[in-house]
Amino acid sequence: MTEVAGGPSVPEPSEIRALKQCLLCRNHGREQHGVAASCLEELRSKACDILAIDKSLAPVTLVLAEDGTIVDDDDYFLCLPANTKFVALAGNEKWAYNNSDGGTAWITQESFDGDETDSGAGLKWKNVARQLKADLSSIVLLSEEDLQMLIDVPCSELAQELSQSRVAVQGLQNTLQQVLDQREEARQSKQLLELYLRALEKEGSILLKQQESKAGLGDERDAVDTGIGESSSEIALTSQILTALKAKPAPELSLSSQDLELVAKEDPKALAVALNWDIKKTEAVQQTCHQELSLRLQQVQSLYSLRSISARKSSLPGEVQNPKQAKRDPT
């Protein structure tokens, strides 16, 4: 059997190249387009057509949307996974990270190597996020620093860590902001109360009583102060907790529940030495921390109770409709 002259030629196996699925967008662009290409040149050509890039702005450079890596080698292109996202840059245009492009990075390219590696901030917020994933009630127990850290994390990154939708995570971040705002309002209320009490002292009603008590208890205070100086100043609190106690008004609102417990259990004399406070002020702060801790634990317990009641209510319709249970009723 003879072949027909001039018939279609069969391509060599080496000439057949598989198509790779890719995503295309412009710099700072929100729209992305799905295309399939077998090589970089084909992808570049389709980018000009789909993204309406003026060919007079050549050369057109393709970079990874995630980190701005220039892709100019076909072998490297073939090694990339399917649905890799590319940004098309025309002429002298420079790549800039866009937090709306759905990339995996959430910080700028310049700070990626330094900030997260050196400070460990990325690992810290992820640990707090996992704590919330296990139990949302732990929001009440977080410190103000942890709350602010989760609020500042880009929504897409937090959604990925929590395995939730962006809408749900945005609602969660709004709740975190409300908790933070409530603590700030409580702090401002306490500051106003302190100002009011100081005003009363200036009028003399409280100041006179304090002066009289100082005269009678001077020797006792000296003895107490001496006792503080002789006691051990070694405490289990971190410098971060001590700084919060010294510098922040209403420090109990800034600390996490774990830190509050440490402050409440600390020896008053040793804590007074570490803070350079008198024993009465130290004990007052410890009492305030203990009260705040009790309040938070009560809130968590209330949330658990509400969950339990809600679960029981949701199961009642099924129990009423169960015919076997109806037959057991003797009446």
From TrEMBL:
Alphabetized UniProt keyword annotations: Acetylation, Apoptosis, Coiled coil, Cytoplasm, Phosphoprotein
Residue ranges of every copy of the CIDE-N domain listed in the record: 18-97
SMART domains reported for this sequence: CAD
Gene3D superfamilies noted in UniProt: 3.10.20.10, C-terminal domain of DFF45/ICAD (DFF-C domain) (1.10.1490.10)
GO molecular function annotation: deoxyribonuclease inhibitor activity; protein domain specific binding; protein folding chaperone
Coiled coil feature spans: 169-203
Pfam families: CIDE-N, DFF-C
GO CC terms: chromatin; cytosol; nucleus; plasma membrane; protein-containing complex
Biological process according to GO: apoptotic DNA fragmentation; negative regulation of apoptotic DNA fragmentation; negative regulation of execution phase of apoptosis; positive regulation of apoptotic process; thymocyte apoptotic process
Region Disordered, residue ranges: 312-331
Entry superkingdom: Eukaryota
Annotated compartments: Cytoplasm
Its job: Inhibitor of the caspase-activated DNase (DFF40).
Assembly and interaction partners: Heterodimer of DFFA and DFFB.
Record protein name field: DNA fragmentation factor subunit alpha
Species of the source: Balaenoptera musculus (Blue whale)
The gene coding this protein: DFFA
